Amino acid sequence: MRGKGKTRASPSASHSTWLPRGKACLNCRLRKIRCDGGTPICGPCRKDGRAVDCEYASNAPSSTHRLEQRVTELRARLRDLEPSSSSQGTSLHSPSPSVQGSQTPQPEELAVGHGDFNLSEADMVTLIDLFFEQEQPLWFLHRTRFHEAAQRPIDDPQRAHAALINIVTAIATRYATSDVAWLEAGLIDASLSALNNPLNTGGVGYENTIMQVLQARVLLGSVLAQMGRTLQSATVLESACALALALGLHNPNEGAALAPLGVMDPIAQQTLPSPTDNVSRAERTGAFWVTTIVESLWALARGAPPRVGFTRYQITTPWPITPERAEEPLFDIVSSSRGPQSVRAFIREGGPAPSWQGDNAVELVATATCLFAYSSAIARRAGIEEAHDVLAVEGHADAFALALGPALLADVRTHPAQVLVRGATLELHTNPGDPRGINAARALAAAAQTLLSPSSTLGFLEPVIGMVVSAACRALISARSTADTDEGVQDLEVTLNTLQGVLEAWAPQSAYIGVQLQRIQQERISSL
Q: How many angstroms separate the CA atoms of 372 and 506, rounded?
């Protein structure tokens, strides 16, 4: 029943009545829930265990202020690191802090907000090559075409967008030697600054540029989330989804004019022309699915609903294939296209669960994300009338897990789907000692070996680990109070230690998982 269990707080039960729009804490605004304005922690944040995230705009620096602070820090750092002989842009071989130059960097050398952070052509190419030497699950553009576009002159309208060049090279510094690590922060902020540069709407290179903007937003939003810059990440990823919808990527119909949804993105006031070739078609389908999945996962991790859902829009975009495969001479993209109708049939009607086909990782992750979001929505309602839905989702999760096969033997690209399927069960069974929740946690612990080596590349797994493994830990913590014997408690502790080890492995490179780990450690101590 809609609204069941939700009552407006009275003045006696809360710090104050609900606040007017714009006065809520930043976390409640982001999650789109009502805030009571309690200080230092508001009621909703305290109730949901999000005290760490509760802050008010009057106490929090704005994004612009944070960016200005960052630029100041970078200037000071570059002043120490820049060699006196440097005049050709930032070099990958800048000296270590022990070899300090005395020259003050000029504004054009910093290039924050304009251009590509003034990397030399050779260094930019080196970093882009390093980027593509790694598996990049979030990449959906044609690699060679991007590489060529990145090397065009700066004033060429078909040059790759500065935001994408900057974020690609920023990520690539992680794979380079440690003496270039200092470049990452500056390149990230430069990408953020260039993200909303006006486009040559409808002009030469417009289609390629708008796809590059989407790619940049996906990568940048993921990096910001990884760094703990949650509000900026949410804004960037939500804007990516809004742009994808405005461009009609959710419903590609080449026989009809695209009908944008809502207001167009400020930087793109014109829809896309019809695809010019199979590569263009593949890039568009990849852009839609990768964008929506990444935004959905990070939104769910924040406790917010995804921007795009299967039930909200009539999605007809087929599952993506790589642009390189679409470019093969004998490949028929039309006959090879498979749409998301099977997901709706699986989630809503109990159709067959998808399985690994060797090249359909995005399909599996999208299906698992949809199942997880659906189970979360049912769990929030938690009424007697939802009992049938709970049983149905349980059956879907079991069928999906069976179709995916043992996690220890599965392809690494299916791991996000493997974990999300267990997460769907955990969402539905949060009562202390619920055997179905404990069994889901044990299944994750059995697959922990496959999750203990965090990838250095961005992907779907990071928010999934943070959400689901921490939920499994909580299920085991609460189950300790219901264990009948010391042996039972010890068994739960062993499983809990295994799952906490997964969080510990990921925490050094993920601020989000680091926060989840701290909360689990605190909850373990307080539950004793």
A: 21
What is the assigned CATH class of domain 13-60? few secondary structures
Neighbour-count burial of 261, counting CB atoms closer than 10 A to its CB (0-12 exposed, 13-18 middle, 19+ buried):
middle
Angle, helices 183-194/63-81, rounded to nearest 10 degrees: 140
Task: Mark out the alpha helices in 82-136 (DSSP H runs).
Answer: 107-110, 121-133
3-state SS class at 247: coil
The DSSP code sequence of 227-243 is HT-HHHHHHHHHHHHHH
For 15-26, the pLDDT digits (tens) are 445 566 667 888
Bridge partner residues of 90 (DSSP) = 119
333, 278 contact by CB (below 8 A): yes
Say if residues 452 and 502 touch (Cβ distance below 8 Å). yes
Task: Enter the tokens of residue 155.
Answer: 């004033």
Q: Which of 235, 228, 303, 299 is nearest to 28 (CA)?
A: 303
Phi/psi of residue 304, nearest 5 degrees:
-110, 155
pLDDT of 204: 60
Domain boundaries defined on the chain = 13-60, 63-300, 358-526
Determine the angle formed by the axes of helices 415-428 and 387-404, rounding to 10 degrees: 160
Strand partners, 209: none
Q: CA 215 to CA 205: how far, in whole Å?
A: 15
CA dist list (Å): 97 to 10, 82, 220, 244: 58, 9, 27, 43
For tokens 């809990």, what's the residue? 496
Q: Please identify which residue in the block is written with the tokens 């080596």.
A: 453
Give φ, ψ of 394 to 5 degrees.
-55, -45
Q: Please name the amino acid found at residue 79.
A: R
Distance between CA atoms of residues 222 and 286, nearest Å: 16
Instruction: Using the CB atoms, write b or e for 399-431: b if 16+ within 10 Å.
Output: bbbebbeebeebeebbbbbbbbbbbbbbbbbee
Residue 119's SS3 state is strand
Confidence of residue 334 (pLDDT cuts 50, 70, 90): low
Average confidence (pLDDT) over 306-335: 76
Question: Global pTM?
Answer: 0.76
DSSP character at residue 90: B
pLDDT tens-digit map of 337-367: 566 776 777 777 777 888 888 888 898 999 9
Nearest to residue 261, comparing CAs of 278, 242, 279? 242
450-506: pLDDT as tens digits: 898 887 778 999 999 999 999 999 999 998 888 778 888 899 999 999 999 999 999
pLDDT tens digits along 89-127: 445 544 433 333 333 333 333 333 344 457 788 889 999
Contact 233, 306 (CB under 8 A): no
Q: How many residues does this entry show for the chain?
A: 528
